[in-house]
Specification:
The chain has 595 residues and is an alpha/beta fold. The protein contains 23 helices and 18 strands. The chain has a seven-stranded mixed sheet with strand order 12-11-13-14-10-15-18, with helices on both faces. The chain has a six-stranded antiparallel sheet with strand order 6-5-4-9-8-7. The structure holds zinc ion.
Length: 595
Amino acid sequence: MQSQIKPITPGHHLSLHQVVKDLVADGRLAKDAADQFLIPARSSKLDIHPLVMLAQQEWPDQQHPGNTLNLEALTQWLAKKAGLPYFRIDPLKVDVTAVTAVTSHAYASRYKILPVKVEANRVVIATAEPYAREWEGELAHITGLQIERVITNPVDLARFLDEFYSVSHSIRRATSGKEDQAIPGISNFEQLVELGKSGRLDANDQDIVQIVDWLLQYAFDQRASDIHMEPRREKGNIRFRIDGVLQHVYDMPAPVMTAVTSRIKVLGRMDVVEKRRPQDGRIKTKMHTGDEIELRLSTMPTAFGEKLVLRIFNPEVLVKDFAALGFGEKDIAGWNQMVTQPHGIILVTGPTGSGKTTTLYSTLKQLAKPEVNVCTVEDPIEMVVSNFNQMQVQHNIGVDFAAGIRTLLRQDPDIIMVGEIRDRETAEMAIQAALTGHLVLSTLHTNDSASAIPRLREIGIPAYLINATLLGVMAQRLTRTLCPHCKQPGEVDADVWAALTSPWKLSGEARFYQPVGCDECRNTGYLGRSGLYEMLKMTPTLREKIQPDSDAVAIRKAGINEGMTQLRIAGAKKIAMGLTTVEEVLKVVPPDSEI
Ligand SMILES: [Zn+2]
């Protein structure tokens, strides 16, 4: 039974005492804990919301054993009690320009309310004070909109209230050049162009600086891997790539986007004036946590102006232990056995964005001991590691991969990492390095591991040289993993499952799960990604199969007989463990990897 909070006055704030009493009455909080808490005659301080104070106690939730009454649980309880919808603010889903136009920062701060959604005739307002309603009639009157209240946690409310208004304020000031002027609409385009011409939108303008800081911080918070700044006809479009999927984040007036792009180009030491030729640059920045982040920039001229993509390299994300990369125990053992050989070639294959670089860096980091010289030749250097010797390919001065390996070989190396093998010269140099007693790691673009061998022959490497040097090939993919906060047990169509796993029958019981969607995963049902691996380890039997005329199918068959797990089977195992779904695995594994 839910007890009712009786309003003391029309429009009162939550009182700490009343909230504690109600939690006890609702069976959520133990009475003795409440009594102990209330004895020292506590009163809710004006500046601390009662729920925040209570969440700090970390009380066990009497109704949900094992859970604590954290801020989110308390907020949900309050929403239910007040008969209002619970709402968690997702900054990526809020149209900041629209919501901040509903009321002023001062008004919103005074009543601790935040508009979160605006429609033609209604506005959704988030609050953490369900019984303080003095603003409601007034705001309805001023805006002419129907007010719909939702309950959100007070910490998020305070944070986003400041963030939304400060960023929209910066954008507005950057656009208008004047403080507190209404946002110029898109209909005002000519005026905006005028402002741009007069040079008021400067890349060094404090507001632009602030927008850029906000944008980067936001991208880090959201675990984005790329930021896209896309000019459109009338506005600028900002999107983040999160777990491999692009998500729309923000629209900006076109001139503001231009200034923001210029500011980022300044930071990346690029030519700000040049807008017609593609350019590259990089930025190193420190996050508030102290982690160093590197951003790789790339511009491209488009019909509506200069498009900018920022790729985020977070060393912590780039180097992980093998379990975190999704390696199974068998994968780890097989991989370690290959990479601890004194000499030979190991190839990692897969399309762009399949996590090859992360695997290579994580491996090299593990191998880089003081007594070992680890050298790399890369295009580009994705991450600078202090105990590697890294060289950047520079085509303009004739330093390509092949020339790079040649140089490295004169540098007394033990382990060489070559960014990519895509031509005969590079392949030959890599073979030579392996033959002269070095361990060579590189990548190749093929669909699966077995195809790497015919690919090397196509490039022009004779079978006997492949046989003499190749230690193994690992194909890999990244697949999105189910959000652990909301996934639910589910079923998989028996025919689909049989087709995916044929001709095998996976041992053990499968526990299938399906995506649901919650606040933690922004309602996508997926959170993070994990690797699928197919390891082709050279064995005497396999070496016999590497003949001038052998094709990928024959090698694949032999590999499976020697214990190789195909990508789709690796995917099926993750599905059976309840980590991902058939849909996600089918998206990334090779289409017809028949035996
Ligand atoms: Zn979720």
